[in-house]
Sequence to fold (951 residues):
Amino acid sequence: MTETATEQAVHTKQVTAAVNGQARSAAVETRLLLVHFIRETLGLTGTHIGCDTTSCGACTVLLDGVPVKSCTMFAVQADGHELTTVEGLAPPGGLHPVQEGFHEEHGLQCGFCTPGMMLTATALLAENPDPSEEEIRWAISGNICRCTGYQNIVKSVQYAAAKMKEASE
Amino acid sequence: MAATEEIRGVGHSVKRVEDARFIRGRGNYFDDITLPGMLHLEFLRSPLAHARIKSIDTSAAEAVPGVVAVVTGELLAQHNLAWMPTLSGDTQAVLATDKVRFQGQEVAAVIAETVYIARDAVELIDVDYDPLPAITSPQQALAKDAPVIRDEKEGQEDNRIYSVASGDKEATDKAFAAADRVVELDTFYPRCHPAPLECCGCVADVDSATGKTTIYMTSQAPHVHRTLFALVAGLPEHKIRIISPDLGGGFGNKVPIYPGYVVATAASLLIGRPVKWVEDRTGNLISTGFARDFHMHGELALEGDKITGLRVTLLSDNGAFFADAQPTKCKAGLFDIVTGSYDIPAADVQAEGAYTNKAPGGVAYRCSFRVTEASYLIERLVQTAAYEIDMDPAEFRRANLIKPDQFPYTSATGFEYDSGDYEAALDLALEKIGYAELRKEQEEAREEGRLLGIGIATFTEVVGAGKGIEYQIAGLRMNDGAELRIHPTGKAVLKLSVKSQGQGHETTFAQIVAEELGLQPEDVEVQEGDTDNTPYGLGTYASRSTPVSGAATAMVSRRVRNKAKKIAAHLLEASADDIDFEDGRFVVKGAPEKAKTIQEVAFAAYTSVPQGLECGLEAVYYYDPPNMTYPFGTYAVLVEIDRGTGAWKVRKVVAVDDCGVRINPMIVEGQIMGGLTEGFGIAAMELITFDEEGNCIGSNFMDYLLPTAWETPSFDLGETVTPSPHHPLGAKGVGESATVGSPAAYVNAVVDALAHAGVRNLEMPVTSDKVWAALNEVGLAE
Fold:
């Protein structure tokens, strides 16, 4: 039942990732979920856990700019990659246009889905700076919100798109 | 005095102050809390719905390195904690001792250094079960010779929980005898689940040196929970501190007390280290407060186009323990609101509840104690009646609505409705959706072979319990306190007994103080959730916060204002009777240039208070509502059905709500859109069901479907404003209106598309296969 120290060592691996622009490294159990690495090992608690089955998107982070659900990835799979969490969306004191949009358009209530939702929206806007309502709804359809009814989230993303367009002109 | 800037008080869409932390990932949910030396709790749950426990062997689990303790019901029984009282006066097993009574029930708990170790060890606990037949419906439960689920309860010889009646049976029988037509509907409001995105959990920290027990827990009612902890565990109440941090949604799921809170606290007490329990999604869906599971039969007596009587029989499935929050005297909650918005002279309601081998609960999910079921039944019945007498469903409603001059209106079941103008809301909704044109379009579409349906619900809710002498939970009067302190520089702290789960209390309640005292809302910090630092009260559920706590906030502000007037009078060298509070300032009557702001008064309260007056500027107020409030509205939904697949698509949703005075219209609309979405989910997809062995189907988000942005329609909102005459601000509460009113509107719309072919009912969730079957039955399938 119990493992020897050597057996345990076999299950441990060093993970190094660029998290929000900073190199972070830790020796972790190979079975450690990415979301626990982010929340417990790195102490970045803005990433949440909502369902354990890749269904709700509360744990969404960006892996090399692409939204992934960190509750069904292992930490070791992030080794050598770039991770962006909600804490890395904007420098301290600043706000990303998506964060601003969610505040301005009342795109959040309890706030639990918000980090994942904002990261998915950020990835969408990086790829498609002027999405239609349908494109926004499709893009965020892997992120469940129980509070808002989505309409204001769509507006929040539209707000951010307009703001980013303005800034690039 | 300073130049006046408009006070952003009642009626302003002030942007939310709580957003600042949430959009930065800086919310403080209980799972974000890590205490030094903290251990982790994981449950072993029963795989069987009904079985006798022969033995539990925990030795292998205990041997896993990093496991600190394995807790069983037997161990808890030694401390008299194997069973706990529920919020409806029943008992519930904390950890099973004699039997397991539903699949997912907590059987044992491992306390370990990490979650991973705890989960490993849970797998090694060996339980020997002797399976018993599972009862999965209340009909089975009440059948003769059904095995008794609660055989541990003295005097419990069957599976009946309650049997109650209300209204006037004799008068109702007379109305039915005299009726020229009787319309019936049998319907089942299926089991669904509030499923807040954050599951339940806690961090329990018993300090063995001070004897203080601090529990960070997902609680919509921290003060009630503290009192119950004191009563259950025999702990002195002042040594218990419940902190309900940021909650990731609640919708009623975080009202009951769950075994996890109790076991974590007991473990922390026994081990002397903090213990965290984080429920996973399956645990949440299979063991915590579900909603509905309510079998309803309704009959309307009609004379011409008038409803003259309503007869209802109900059968509720409460699961293995009667565990939901219930205002003491109403076993079927506030179901008596079933006469809805209609002037129905006689009503008779017979309700029964039964134990089954299913998870306990029943009233939660954004609903004021069974108001949702009541509203669904009457709104479905009324539509059925309209078809039967060949009348337009909107016009049939109009003919039966309670008229404005009938308020205050006493319903046949005894509620006193405070205010309403139902026809105004109906008219506005019909106008906004273009009802007359849509009926024409529906006809034309039908000729082209397309099926459109228009569904309406003209609902009335009862919320804001409420009138402490009649409504109590666990004997505690449903009152709420507010404490307001104005600091010398004119900044304020407001402490409340309620607890936001996303409703924006920190913004809305600050606006009430702002309105009443002439401060800006950003100068008021609202604090909630910590029982050490907030006044007592019953918490946030049943749309109570604005009706009860909002009223308490207005009243405490007025109490502070009365003192402020005296100080202003002193500063202005006038008599207090000559001071008016106008445009946010304290003004001498007839001399508007002589005025003081609240900031000036606050400073004086601590620096130059008049002789004979106490220093300081603060107050406490406990609000006992004189009555409940009765929000209402009309929802109208347009759907189109795909005759090839049975899929239905919502093309339009119009929601006209009258929740009285709106404090923050932006937040009100957010609440409505959220409720319309949950209502859509309930109508279209959300379902927890069980096979005949009591296996839960719907135990994760792959099986329990929730609406995403893709399926969810857009919403067109409207408002009418009929203030509540007894609420200090005229507000009524709005958090649940849309989940209460909208499911019937969606279902009515789908039924309406098929009504011409004789379809009268489709059961929720109205999935495409059910519509497909109905299409085939009436020969409309393509």
